[in-house]
Design goal:
single chain, alpha+beta, Ribosomal Protein S5, domain 2, Alpha-Beta Plaits, 2 domains, five-stranded antiparallel sheet, three-stranded antiparallel sheet, 6 helices
Amino acid sequence: MNKEQDYYLTIAQNSKAEFKEKGSRFIAYTFPITTAEDVKTHIASLKKEHPKASHHCFAYRLGLDGNNFRANDDGEPSGTAGKPILGQIDSKKLTNTLVVVVRYFGGTLLGVSGLINAYKTTTALALQTTPIIQKAVEIVHEFQYDYTKMNPIMTIVKQYNCTIIKQEHQLFYLLTIGIPKARLNEVLYKITEVIEGK
């Protein structure tokens, strides 16, 4: 099995970096994201934080197939902001990553190459300040079991670094977890054994 498909690279946490060029201020913000909804939330909060900025340009890549991405110039000349931002995300082979660059116009036009360089540089600086981590590709599964099985199942969940997505408990427990793809069969086998009482 291809190692690349079991893991992906993303950023560990939010970060921020600033770059100045001919009076213009460029502030890049990086965010680890999991959905396109996250993108809207972060951009909305930055627009509140920087209401006087001239541009809020951004790019993101989501998922593992490489097809879920967007680059937005937010009024800058086409291709001068979103694409260089996305280029930096891609040069580090990151996914589930959003970078927003807020620009305060300084009065001097930078020209196309100046803008591309400024957005690229600001993004690169921000990505250098956040740790890049390798995360396991997870397959989501749902399990239903009675209360008595809870402890052994939670032990398996912890042991294999599964992510708990949702837990509900009515007459029985309903657990939704993300299982690292590389350990999928092992985890399914062990949890099924517990549920079936073997």
